[in-house]
Here is the input.
Amino acid sequence: MTVLPIRITGEPVLHERALDVQEITSEIKELISDMFDTMDKAPGVGLAAPQVGVGLRIFVFDYEVEDTRFRDVAINPVLEIEPYDEADPDEDLEVEGCLSIPGERFPLKRSERVVLKATDESGEHYEIAAEGWLARIFQHEFDHLNGTLYADRLIEPYHSEALEVIEENGWGLSGNSWMPGIDYLEP
Ligand code: ZN
Here is the structure.
């Protein structure tokens, strides 16, 4: 079991478009295994490769809804997003967080419905039609692969509040990370 340090906003790899995985090698499989360990330890419901410093189009997720557990890796994913209106997120029900902006949460609208198309570790193609929180997780993780953090999508006043928090914590620069199980024990 290998838990990797999670990069904090400001680290360049979090703000760049990640590259396609060309081949699912033993190194890629090891990375995926480490990403699951890191997500579980954080704990989180999703984790993208750039968050552990690797600029590749891979994310893992683990979420249970109505007795169905969705736990898998998405390699080179495509996401079809049903159009939505970003105005007036609900401050109680539509609040999002990110392991790369640890301990913080802000309201953000997301599409209610998406379709994820991706490749798993054995090279099999799969599709998941997701609603609600699972759809949110997929949008959040997919964004990571394009160098977008949820803070980038916030509307005012939440965007300014997030920028303030990032500055107050000394984040927004390269070189910051935290270690699940050691730092931020109660995010
Ligand atoms: Zn995130």
User: Anything to note?
Assistant: The longest helix spans residues 26-41. The chain has one domain: 6-81+110-178. DSSP finds four helices and nine strands in the chain. Strands lie at 6-7, 46-48, 58-65, 68-81, 95-97, 105-107, 113-119, 125-131, 177-178.
